[in-house]
Design brief:
Blueprint lengths: L1 H20 L1 H38 L4 E5 L11 H5 L6 H10 L3 E16 L2 E11 L3 H4 L4 E4 L4 H6 L3 E4 L1 H8 L9 E4 L2 E9 L14 E5 H8 L7 E6 L5 H15 L11 E4 H44 L1 H9 L4 H38 L7 H27 L3 H6 L2
Parallel strand pairs: 3-8, 5-7
Antiparallel strand pairs: 1-9, 1-10, 2-3, 2-6, 2-9, 4-7, 5-8, 6-7
Amino acid sequence: MYKSLTILWNSLRLTFQELKVNKLRTFLSLIGISFGIFCIIGVLATVNSLKLNIQKELSSLGSNSIHIDKWDYKGGPDYPWWKYEKRPSPKYREALAIKERSHLASDVAFQVESNQTVSFGDIALTSAGITGITPETQNINPVEIQFGRYFSANEFSYGSPVAVIGYTNAEDLFGNPARATGKIVRLKNTQVTIIGVVKKTGTSITGFNSDQAVFIPYQFAKKIFGDENSSPKIIVKGKDNISSAALANELEGIMRSIRMLGPREEDNFTLNQISVLADQVSSIFDSINLGGWAIGILSLIVGAFGISNIMFVTVKERTSIIGLKKAIGAKRRSILSEFLLEAAIISILGGLIGLLLVYLLTLILSSLIGFPVFISASILLLAITICVVIGVASGIIPAYSAAKLDPVVAIRSK
């Protein structure tokens, strides 16, 4: 143990001496490792943060839920919007029929959306996102109330003119969101009482932001802007231990039966599985990760050759010292370990510089895109492992050549 610590200390001391004496040569070698680690860890950290954020937002839509809509959420370059436009919109009665017939669904919600003007005194929010919801929506896509309360059962049943408003909207209308509850706003010539404010959530990548939403009971929404022109959809959540595929198969049969489609008629609705969308997001980010690895590996190879070059020069410069060490009893493995450790330390130093650059990148991106970009513990461990492997691989040949030197020949080389 003592011998190993002595070798490590000597390696550290000699490595920093090399850094001090041969600054330019060492810098050119470190820059390859630093850039390689920056590319790999930078891409992994950014993509991992984006992936987790999007998956979190998708799970907020209901991880085991299916959105029945006339539109397909997948999109793509060949998206046949004209085909989906002609489809009938989901109906509230269809949601009730699914709730009655389905054996695999735990909750069935109906939702409508419309952009309307909401005003309070002289202040108006134009094109505010109004979302009409049913009681089951809170079980599928729950929102957390910061001030006030959520809708009561009677308010849902009777379509009371009440609303739960997003945090940003509350700030814009009333200044202080805490003062929003009890205030009366005007929505399409109807007075609406604010009963609650949703907790601030921040920017959403998926396109929906509860901070800028206004939630009202569906029965009230139906009175003021109806169903047809309000992007209606049915949201179905499966029971525990029920797969999305099984739920989708059941819902397809139920919807075809409700709409009385013949065996040869194609579906005039789309079952948008949130879990499938999450898998698609993962596959996209996996491809981006591969690109980061490809660029990073090329840089690491350049850095590895640089470290190997440093170690060959170091061995040549210390040949007589190596011979003297071997003459007084140093074993091959001690010489081998010393140079391998030195190579690994140089590589780790390059990796630390790369990690510092990645850290600065995460700070910049976090401020720009509105959610935290971070380096996870697993990614940090991966970076250190890569550095050690590159260092050992780069130094193995020079270290082996040093370890097998003949002590007499090595001493005379000076």
